[in-house]
Amino acid sequence: MADYLFVFSTFSNRAEAEAVAAELVDRRLVACAQVSAPVLSVYRWQGNTERTEETTLTLKTRSEKWPEVEAALLQLHPYDTPEIVAVPIVAGSAAYLRWIDESLKP
């Protein structure tokens, strides 16, 4: 696994995403959390095609934090089956990656 990850999740509104973002940063599970403008999600759920406006939360962390980040998202997320996916950061500026490291220290 790569040393650094982007973790993505979606929420039904900005307030939910901001609350989870602040909690994960405060716990030092993620270095940064970005709450994006609403997006339209089209997906299948319980046999129906749904169209829902959601807010995307993008998190930056180290791969060894993944189990804790996933557990926290599952605990804090209001959805029954939340989107929680991690994508490796395969390259990044050395200064930015050092900043992530420093931000996650206790």
Keywords:
106 residues, four-stranded antiparallel beta sheet, 3 helices, Alpha-Beta Plaits, elongated
Side by side, the strands of the main sheet go 2-3-1-4
CATH class: Alpha Beta
Outline type? elongated
CATH architecture: 2-Layer Sandwich
Helix residue percentage:
25-40%
What's the gyration radius in Å?
14 Å
| Strand portion | 35-45%
Q: How many separate helices?
A: 3
The total domain count is: 1
**What is the averaged pLDDT score?**
96
According to CATH, the fold-level topology is Alpha-Beta Plaits
In terms of structural class, how would the helical and strand content be classed? alpha+beta
Number of strands: 4
Largest beta-sheet characterization: 4 strands, antiparallel
Q: What is the terminal separation in angstroms?
A: 23 Å
Describe the structure.
The protein is an alpha+beta fold. The chain has a single domain (4-104), classed as Alpha-Beta Plaits (2-Layer Sandwich), CATH 3.30.70. The chain has helices at 14-26, 66-76, 94-104; strands at 4-11, 32-45, 48-62, 85-88. It has a four-stranded antiparallel beta sheet. Strand 2 (32-45) and strand 3 (48-62) form a beta hairpin. The chain is elongated. The mean pLDDT is 96.
Fold blueprint:
Elements: E1 4-11, H1 14-26, E2 32-45, E3 48-62, H2 66-76, E4 85-88, H3 94-104
